[in-house]
Amino acid sequence: xxGGDRRFFQKTLDIIREKDYSxxxxxxxxxxxxxxxTMQRPTSVTVxxxxxxxFAGLGLCGTAFSVMLFMPSAATANNPVVQIIQSxxxxxxxMKVSLGLGLxxxxxxxxxxxxxxxxxxxxxxxxxxxAIYTIIMTLVGVVINYFFLIQPMLQKAQGQQGPExxxxxxxxxxxxxxxxxxVIYPILLLIFMTRPHVVAAFNQSTPxxxxxxxx
Length: 215
Fold this sequence. Notes:
Elements: H1 3-18, E1 30-33, E2 37-40, H2 43-68, H3 80-87, H4 89-117, H5 121-158, H6 163-182, H7 184-193, H8 196-204
Antiparallel strand pairs: 1-2
């Protein structure tokens, strides 16, 4: 890793660790290309670069919370999701595989965000791969959650009354709605990363003869 890239990467990690996302505004809006050529980074690339980094940080928090579901305690004993995980080995296996793949995807999303802000062509490619993967996995997750999570919770709600029934119905609706919302960002990312002016910006940052070093 070159000196400039290393400093850029370290600065991004410091922002995530300190949760001071406003500091991302200090990143340069233009990139100096080899042989003195300077390019203006498209605004959409800057926005999605920042969002990739922010969502990667949020993803780490979400993963940590999901891991807690596999650590039964008094606080989670009455959680219907925890109960379903404990009673369904198949759903528990799906959750574990999803968490493992999720960590890999989070690292890829963070790297893509850093690369987008530095106009790295591979970052655009990685963002597109992330978007396609996330859309597919989210749709698969919605189907699996319906059969293993939502349907059992709705059936449980039919035999209950009061707050417990309301909680089961709310959890089922929230699980389905969350899956639908989760595909919005990757769809937008896929659309913007394939727009002509964005493609042109990354193509210009890689002259013929190999990728140039950044100053």
